[in-house]
Design a protein that fits this description.
By secondary structure, this protein is α+β, with helices and mostly antiparallel strands. Keywords: Signal.
Length: 130
C-alpha cells in the first residue's frame, strides 16, 4: 500500500510540473498579465568598474512581483540581478522603466527586452528576445 501511495504521489508531482511548464507561453504579454514570468535570450553584460562580464548567449528571467508595477530581472552567467524596478505602460504592449532617459532605460514587451541600466557606477545591458 505504501508503495502505491508513493507511486501515486510521484505521478501527481510530475503531472503538476508538466502542467506548470505547459501553461507558460512565449506569447504572454508582460503588460496585460497579473502574473508574468518569461525568459529572454540574447546578449547580456555587466560592468562595475572592476568586474566585467558579457556573453552573446545569455538569458534574463523576468518576473512581475506582487505590486503590479515592479519587475525583477534574474541574469544568467553570474551577473547580479536587478530587483524591484518600477514600470509604466507605453502603448498597448510595451512597458518602460519609470525614470527612463537616454542613458538609462529598460524596455520590455512580449517579444523583446532592451536594457541599459546604470546605477551606483554599475552598468547592466541586455538585447534579448523570446
Amino acid at each position: 500500500m505504501k508503495k502505491a501511495i508513493r507511486i501515486l504521489g510521484i505521478f501527481m508531482l510530475v503531472f503538476v510540473a508538466t502542467l506548470s511548464f505547459a501553461s507558460c507561453s512565449s506569447d504572454d504579454d508582460p503588460v496585460n498579465n497579473d502574473f508574468f514570468a518569461g525568459t529572454y535570450k540574447g546578449s547580456i553584460s555587466y560592468n562595475d568598474g572592476s568586474t566585467s562580464n558579457s556573453t552573446d548567449n545569455g538569458s534574463v528571467f523576468v518576473t512581475k512581483i506582487a505590486s503590479g508595477t515592479k519587475y525583477n530581472f534574474a541574469f544568467s552567467n553570474g551577473i547580479p540581478d536587478l530587483n524591484g524596478v518600477e514600470f509604466q505602460q507605453q502603448g498597448d504592449h510595451t512597458l518602460v522603466m519609470v525614470g527612463s532617459n537616454a542613458t538609462s532605460y529598460i524596455r520590455i514587451d512580449n517579444n523583446e527586452l532592451k536594457i541599459l541600466y546604470i546605477k551606483d557606477g554599475k552598468t547592466w545591458t541586455a538585447n534579448c528576445t523570446r
